[in-house]
Each structure stands twice: as structure tokens, then as C-alpha cells.
Amino acid sequence: MGRRKKKEAAKAEPGAPLWMVTYSDMVTLLLCFFVMQLVYANFEDPGKVEAALESIKAAFGTGSIHHTEPTEPTPAQSTDMKESAKEQNEQLVEALQSVLAEMMSQNLVRMTQTKTEIRIQLDEMVLFRPGSSTLNPVSLGLLSDVAEAVHDYPVFLIVEGHADADGTSEDKNWMMSATRAVSVVSELRRRKDESGKPLLDGQYLEARGMGEFRPADVEKEQSKWNRRVELVIRGRNTTAVGAIEKLDQSLGEQNGRR
Prior knowledge:
258 residues; 2 domains; 8 helices
């Protein structure tokens, strides 16, 4: 019996012990882990990371690659989108014109439009008393009507406060214009629907203080329009901004009457 064991021991070939196999597997997995860390650190495009993960899943037999290339809209779809955006913009403009018609006829409000935005200029006296950033009570209904007109449309609403150069200092003019813009934004945000939900999403509202550096009438330094608040309405989706011939025509007629 002792001799047989010695013979079997003599037949054993030299080599690495069996535990080295498990150790090698563990080192390989660690290497894969650090490679993936490097991938995450260097791939700025999330799509590349997803593609890499799908490739690894496919290689290990735990998944398959499902990489879908983004598709661009067809010419017909693009035309439909533009027409839909144009129709929405026309509806929004009509709603705003209806809300502001009386004050526009009194030259207290001006509205202009380009391919990218609608601007509503509000005379200082419509919203504030001279030297004050507290809203006039009579202006609350107007701002409520504007919020009602805008809330169904996918737009950004930027409120710009403007001052003239008659203040005691630039700093005070900056502060006054900014405080007035914030007052208007806060009031717009307070407008709620029947369920108590704010009409306008705060992430699509913005207040800007422009100080005295954006006069409305460059040729008239003392123009009352230099002290104003502007509501700037822009589409959230750039493909949804189109030229509105009907608005251009109506605004041209209004400016001609002035």
C-alpha cells in the first residue's frame, strides 16, 4: 500500500496549485471592473456607455444589443410640425391681443413679434407707481389674464425690468429694475387654476434686471418707455418657432396708427 502511494505521488506532474485558477478568475473580474470605471470616466456621451454595456452583455450571453439610431423627421413630418407650431403661435397671439387690446389702444402696452419671440412692453404706470416696486392692485387682473392666456402653451416667459438714467445711481437703477421683474414673476407664479395648481411652471419663468442700458427709444433719452417691464415669450422647442405673417401684418397696422 505504501509503495502504491509513492508511485502515484511520483506520477504527479509539477504545476500551479488548483487555487490559482480561482485567483486568476478573480483578478480577471477586477480588471474588467477597472476597465468599466475607465469607460465611465472618459465617455461623455451616455449613448456610448449604453452601447458598451450592451456589448458586454452580449459577449457574456446575458443580453443582446438593441441600439436604435435616432431618426430624423421626414419632410412631411417636419412640415406638419411647423404648421402645428404656427397655428399654436397664432392662437397664443390672438389670446394675448384680446387680453391687452384696451391698453394697447391707449398706448400703454406695445406688442411686437419676431421669428423667435413675442415681446410685450408694459408702461411703468400700468404696473407700478413711480419709484416703487410694489405692484398696483389694478395690475393684478391683467397679469392673471396673461397667465391664463399663456399657460396652455409650451413657452418660456422671461420678465425684464428696465429703468432710465434719471436715478441717483446705476446700482439703484439695477436694483429697481430687478426688483420689479421679480415682483411680476412672483405674481404670475401665484396665479392658480381651479384645482389650486399654479398656472405657470416656475422652471419656465425667469426674472431679469436690465437697469438703464436697454432704452426702448434710443433717440428720446427721456422717453417714458425706458421705464418699463417687458414680457418675453419664447418657445421651449426651437422647431416650434415659425414666422407668423398674420401677426406681422396686424402689428404693422397698429404701429402705423401710432
